[in-house]
């Protein structure tokens, strides 16, 4: 049986397999405090970073799903080849 022939450079994310991450909107509990501006700046930067990480995770999940689909197709093709070879041997 031949090995699976998968070229990982051709794998790309399949749209729709992984939902788009939702953005986080921070709520400032310190609105009347002198620290409100600093809290807004920090929480907004943190929310942006979390969104960036979630987007990367979603992209990678899409790539993994696409790779799994290609592997499944290659496995099916190999199974068909093996079935054909077995029928010729008989």
Please describe the biggest sheet, giving its number of strands, its sense, and whether it closes into a barrel.
Answer: none
Strand and helix order: H
Structural class: mainly alpha
Which whole number gives the mean pLDDT?
79
**Count of alpha/pi helices:** 1
Q: Specify the overall morphology.
A: rod-shaped
Q: What portion of residues is helical?
A: 55-70%
Distance N terminus to C terminus? 17 Å
What is the rounded Rg? 24 Å
Beta-strand segment tally:
0
Point out poorly predicted stretches.
Answer: none
Q: How much beta, percentage-wise? A: under 5%
What does this structure look like?
The chain is mainly α and 90 residues long. 60% of the residues lie in helices and 0% in strands. The chain contains 1 helix and no strands. The longest helix is centred in the last third of the chain and has 54 residues, at 36-89. The chain starts with 35 loop residues before the first helix and ends with a helix. The mean pLDDT is 79.
């Amino acid at each position: 049986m031949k090995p699976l022939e998968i070229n990982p450079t051709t794998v790309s994310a399949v749209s729709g397999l992984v939902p788009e991450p939702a953005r986080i909107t921070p709520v400032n509990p310190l609105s009347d405090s002198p620290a409100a501006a600093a809290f807004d700046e920090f929480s907004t930067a943190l929310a942006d970073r979390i969104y960036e990480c979630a987007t990367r995770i979603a992209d990678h999940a899409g790539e993994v799903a696409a790779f799994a689909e290609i592997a499944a197709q290659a496995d099916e093709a190999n199974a068909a080849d093996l079935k054909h070879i077995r029928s010729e041997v008989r």
